[in-house]
Specification:
359 residues; alpha+beta; Adenine-n6-DNA-methyltransferase TaqI, Chain A, domain 2; 4-stranded antiparallel sheet; 21 strands
Length: 359
């Protein structure tokens, strides 16, 4: 029964699950007309498909669990994904927006490889309206989504602008075309420290920065920020202040090397797989961060990290051994001023995007 146009239902009332036994190897070297998707998106085309109609796919295993996609008819997913097949009560795109809002990653289990299960999250409740009202809601949300996508593209262009300016001013880091003096990171730091291995806790005293709070493009993302308690006797070992450089030292090859400058006034605590770096005055934090985030350095870091026994890792000594050029401080200051100007535009765009997402 609909009350005020809506009926409270559970996710399992409007869909059913489907499974895939396809592997990445089933896609390699194939050339067909039907698309196959994985956690990162489209991974190939084959000569068959599993789903006749549009559906939702959710990452159920490994990195990115809970990530949700709306996929077209006559496509398939690999086995790390879960098919969510809507019934006649719900429009696929309406269900897609509903599931995205649920943040299914909160249902993860498993210490080594995280999983989420349909039997757990199918009990999630939401408001279901009739099909005509669903169409109206989907139309409105699609328009907002286009605006958000456009603004994200603007942010990507701003990041590319700064990266291009960095190379223009300082040259490629490996080639050192400008002929700057070469030093090691160990020569320019006053301190390199690991974070804490203590777990996050509800109602903790300090904000807790983890690997997911460092973005691939060299920024802090404070969404899904946890809290932690640390004894006063240990706090100085793992707390970060404005101007510290943060370096993600371990996890998968793709995640090792993420670097950013901590630019907040509120002190926070870092997890053990992040290295805290404090610099001498001869190198500005923003310059080191962009140096580490260049494609050439990321490739070098990944090669270094592959030597680890259990998982990709770069320890403090390896980090300090990395060669880096040392441009004049006046030129570094010019670059820092340029980044500040671009960040003003970033801040405005991010603010507008958050307002749109709230809608």
């Amino acid at each position: 029964m609909f009350v005020a146009g809506f009926m409270r239902v559970r996710l399992g009332d409007v869909c059913e699950k489907g499974s895939s036994n396809l592997k990445q190897s089933d896609v390699n070297d194939k050339n067909g007309e039907y698309e196959i998707y994985g956690a990162s998106g489209l991974i190939g085309k084959v000569d068959f498909f599993h789903q006749e109609k549009p559906y939702i796919a959710v990452v159920k295993d490994g990195a990115g669990i809970g990530r949700t996609m709306l996929l077209p008819e006559k496509t398939s997913v690999i086995g790390t994904m879960q098919y969510i097949l809507p019934n006649e009560k719900v429009i696929p795109k309406y269900l897609y927006y509903v599931i995205r809002y649920m943040h299914l990653e909160k249902y993860f289990t498993g210490a080594t490889i995280p999983h989420i299960y349909f039997k757990d999250y199918k009990r999630e409740e939401f408001n279901l309206c009739d099909l005509s009202e669903q169409e109206k809601i989907v139309s409105t949300l699609s328009k907002i989504e286009k605006i958000i996508t456009h603004r994200k593209q603007q942010l990507e262009k701003l990041d590319l602008l700064v990266k291009a300016r960095f190379v223009e001013m300082f040259g490629e880091p490996i080639l050192n075309e400008k002929g700057w003096n070469m030093v090691t990171i160990g020569d320019i730091v006053t301190e390199v420290k690991y974070g804490t291995s203590k777990p996050a806790v509800e109602g903790g005293k300090y904000p807790y920065l983890r690997m997911n709070n460092l973005t691939y493009d060299g920024h802090l993302d404070l969404t899904n920020l946890k809290m932690i308690d640390i004894p006063d006797s240990e706090i100085e070992k793992c707390i970060v202040h404005r101007g510290d450089v943060l370096f993600n030292r371990t996890n998968s090859i793709e995640l090792v090397g993420k670097t950013c400058v901590f630019d907040k006034d509120e002190d926070m605590v870092i997890a053990g797989y992040i290295i805290r770096v404090r610099l001498k005055s001869i190198m500005l934090p923003i310059v080191l961060s962009y140096f580490m985030n260049t494609d050439a350095l990321k490739k070098k870091l990944r090669n270094m990290a592959k030597g680890a026994v259990n998982q990709a890792n770069i320890n403090a000594q390896e980090f300090k051994s990395i060669n880096i050029y040392l441009p004049p401080i006046e030129l570094q200051t010019q670059f820092a001023d340029f980044v500040k100007q671009v960040d003003k535009s970033r801040f405005i765009t991010l603010k507008e995007n958050k307002e749109s997402e709230i809608l």
